[in-house]
Design a protein that fits this description.
Distance between the termini: 55 Å
Shape: globular
Largest sheet: 5 strands, parallel
Number of strands: 8
Helix content: 40-55%
Strand content: 5-15%
Strand order of the largest sheet: 4-3-2-8-7
Radius of gyration: 20 Å
Bound molecules: zinc ion
Structural class: alpha/beta
Amino acid sequence: MLFNKLTTLVFALAASVATVAAAPSKRALAQVITSCTVPGTAAMTFDDGPYYYIYDISKALVAANATGTFFFNGNNYGCIYDPDNVKRVNYVLDKGHQVGSHTWAHKDLATLTWDQIHDEMWRVEEALMKISGRYPAFMRPPYGSYNDLVREASAIRGQVLATWDFDTEDSLGASVAQQKSSIDALIKKKPKTILSLEHETYGALNSVLEAFPFSHVEHRDLLAL
Ligand SMILES: [Zn+2]
């Protein structure tokens, strides 16, 4: 009887080890959101913070009766545990905006190992939980770069990946005038939805916010629905 129990335990352990080893290729892939799904809506997303300009961005959004989504890094322009950044995280949550993960150090996840991907994801999730008590439901992969390993790691955490379908190109050096011009061109095409990419780390953003079509579309943050 004892032998049988031991045998069972050994088999159970073997099965457990086998499950862990085989898991990355067996697990489900996280959903990837590339656009808004409800016609007439636009979502504005702001990456790479928390950062200095976050208060201005939030005020501009709130003044337009809108909310945005902030995809935070753990350590990119600054460390998320810095007291100023802790305040910024909680400020936008208090104002009703949505917060997602942009991973810890803004690495290209598609170049990392399974363990490294988990580390990049977990460290910022842990920070957000410690700072705000909340766990991010969405992850924006840095550079929009991901592979099946990344999707598997996100699926395990119950997360959805979110990319974008309109880039203001602020991170590529587009001037405010250029960004306004590309937004105007986009609106002329009368898109049913917009899922835009901005970065909260650029001071010119306020002007771009003024140019965004708050009056043209029902400006709600789809990711929060
Ligand atoms: Zn980024």
